Amino acid sequence: MGEKVKLVMLLGGGAILGSVSTLVLLKLLPRRRGQKYIKEDFRLQGDGLTLETTKRDYSSNGDHQRADADLLKDEIVSEQLTRNIQFFGLESLQKVTKSYVVVIGLGGVGSHAASMLLRSGVGKLLLVDFDQVSLSSLNRHAVATRADVGTPKAHCLKKHFSSVFPESSIEAKVLLYDASTEEEILSGNPDFVLDCIDNIDTKVALLAACVRRGVKVLSATGAGARADPTRIRVADLKESTNDPLSRAVRHRLRKDYGIEGGIPVVFSLEKPKVKLLPFRGPNGEEENPSDYQIVPGFRVRIVPVLGTIPAIFGQIMASYVVTQLARFQVQMEPVVNLDMDHYRVLHQRLIEHEESLFGTATHVQVDVEEVMYVVKELWHGRSAREQIAKDVGRAMWRSVNELMLVRLMNMSKGPLTIYEKRNQSFSQE
């Protein structure tokens, strides 16, 4: 028994010594920026720990200047981002750490997008939202707790972010985006703007401003009233379907600004599962929601939201932006709205084409699922005859009569294998 006690004491003493040594090393490592920003961001006041947001907080960088070019030279930062370095490579990740991203709308979608941008090493973030954290928003917000209820969403995120990645320059603005705040929010040449706004007027104005300024923007459409994460896609605004918000935005952009497309959006192919809840006043009877609007044009009625879906929207947005910043090539799933009946028609036409040329279709050794693979994965819904690759147009798939698959042949080599057919021998006309 005495030997066991000695062994336990020895192990415990070693663990304590190791912990103390680690803390000492962390203190000795360079903390050029992190400690400074934590100290400047918080002030003790009469009501406890209060976050202060001023332009003076980040005067070492200058207002809206690029992030620290040497961020990855900090040993702790490079260790924290080591998996990203391994994934992208050092030079590519340096592009991320030097980037400046603006996130507008910090609810269920925007909070998750901003959180993963931070954790991915974005060197400078501007967080913008005029709203406060509510108790009902805790089912989908990335970081808010009950203690944050009633505080501005922008301040809530900044407070949390300072403990996750203090080396990042984070600015929070409690603002409503409109024409009067455009310059304050979009100045400074951001590398990307994330539109996570759910109000049509504000969203349209922001997207039009980004197009006018030549600023890259990624927009989120409706994440509420949906439940299937496998139906979420990233495509051009003109490709989005089954989404009332994107339909309205598309119409307004075309009508008011002459913008037809060219704006990437995150959207769901899933039709909304539930509808807006009826608005009931204090007496419990259904009333006109516009009578209770605090901000004109903003929704008062409640959209039922499964918290996982806006979170996934935000994660997808962050992934898209980070890979773009790192110049990392990603081929998004094409939006091809064909059902299995259409693929069966294409397969049957391929067989008929072979029979008309050779009197037999024995060399057609593909089934309907492989036809679907050829159309979606290999050709991404595009025609082999097009000299310039274009995004799949909404009208392109309205008539399957214009689609056809043909087999390219080299008669001297005999029938091609299925593998060769998949990778080189089928073209879509």
From TrEMBL:
THIF-type NAD/FAD binding fold domain boundaries: 82-330
Key words of the record: Membrane, Transmembrane, Transmembrane helix
Coiled coil, from the record: none
Gene3D superfamilies in the cross-refs: NAD(P)-binding Rossmann-like Domain
Membrane-spanning ranges: 6-29
Keyword Membrane: yes
InterPro entries: ThiF/MoeB/HesA, ThiF_NAD_FAD-bd, Ubiquitin-activating_enz
PANTHER family given in the database record: TRNA THREONYLCARBAMOYLADENOSINE DEHYDRATASE, TRNA THREONYLCARBAMOYLADENOSINE DEHYDRATASE 1-RELATED
Protein's name in the database: tRNA threonylcarbamoyladenosine dehydratase isoform X2
Biological source species: Rhodamnia argentea
